[in-house]
């Protein structure tokens, strides 16, 4: 268990949307019709919701290095 308050749930498909709604967490889909993620939008959402930690549970994509370095440190 993690003692934290979820700020937002982000996915590249709507499969987990119901889980976000069940726990009243804002949902953001960053995937196109094929599920390809928009990594720039991913970064914008993290900034907009002032996220401190990102947990990549069930997010089966490799994040590009530029996205990781944007938030390093």
Topology:
Layout: E1 9-11, H1 17-22, E2 27-29, H2 39-48, H3 65-70
Parallel strand pairs: 1-2
Question: Could you explain the architecture of this structure?
Answer:
This protein is 30% helix and 8% strand. The longest helix is centred in the middle third of the chain and has 10 residues. Helix 1 links the parallel strand 1 and strand 2. It has a two-stranded parallel ribbon. The protein has 3 helices and 2 strands. The model has no long low-confidence stretch (mean pLDDT 91). With 73 residues, the protein is of the alpha+beta class.
Reading side by side through the largest sheet, how are the strands ordered? 1-2
**Fraction of residues in β-strands:** 5-15%
The quaternary organization reads as: single chain
General form: globular
Largest sheet: 2 strands, parallel
> What is the helical fraction, as a range of percent?
25-40%
State the helix count: 3
User: Secondary-structure element sequence?
Assistant: EHEHH
Keywords:
single chain; 73 residues; alpha+beta; two-stranded parallel sheet; 3 helices; 2 strands
Compact summary:
With 73 residues, the chain is an alpha+beta fold. It has helices spanning 17-22, 39-48, 65-70, and strands at 9-11, 27-29. It has a two-stranded parallel sheet.
